[in-house]
Amino acid sequence: MSEFAARALLNKEGRSLILVQEVYMRHVSLLGSLFLLFPLNAAAVTAYPQEKKAGRLIAITPNRLAPELYSEKLTLRITLMNLPGANEPRSLWQGEYKVYFVAEREFEKIMRQLKREGRDRELTPELFPQKVLLAQGSFAKNGLKTLSERTFIVKGIDFKRKIPTDQQTSFATIMSFYSIKVYDAKLGKTIYDSGVFFSPPFEVQGNDQRSMAPLSTIYLNFYVSEDGDIYKSSRKEDSGREVWGMTR
Fold it and tell me: Is 60 a domain residue?
């Protein structure tokens, strides 16, 4: 683990913890089909305290094979949506990431165990021994004036061919672990953060709330406020706007 990854873990604040396992756990004790109120990421609640948007109603059948919901390739898009000192040449942004696939049954089993032990907010990749590594890497950026300069993209991530056929179910989980360091030269502040985003293998298609399509892009969006606080979201729509509505 790098120095800034370790610092991020040590300096984590409560609002920086992005977990949606409570949502996933709703289906553990149920059998057959169910309707799940599925927020594409719980970070929406963290990033938008005044906009606690309802999730989308999607019909999900636990442990149902759904290979049609698995894309051949994925794209990872990591964006620093806002930085007060973006125009300052000394501002910089560094990050590390690891993206894993976790099969539905393993995710359920481990999350139930962690919840019983009171450790369900201490997630690390090591807790999921049968995970499949999809992508890992790091980046370092300065010259952060434009949104494109604050965006890091990895294309062509092999997905479907890496996943055993019997694990290609609709309720499997893509876990994106990250550690970031941001230095804002305008604020004179260094910001560390780490956490995990969860994504299903599918995404809602168009305006039809029950129509699903294979996930094509994983979005990790970060926003540094004028006070130097960091917010985040993995919602696709948040990757296209540089102004996020936030209240303290």
Answer: yes
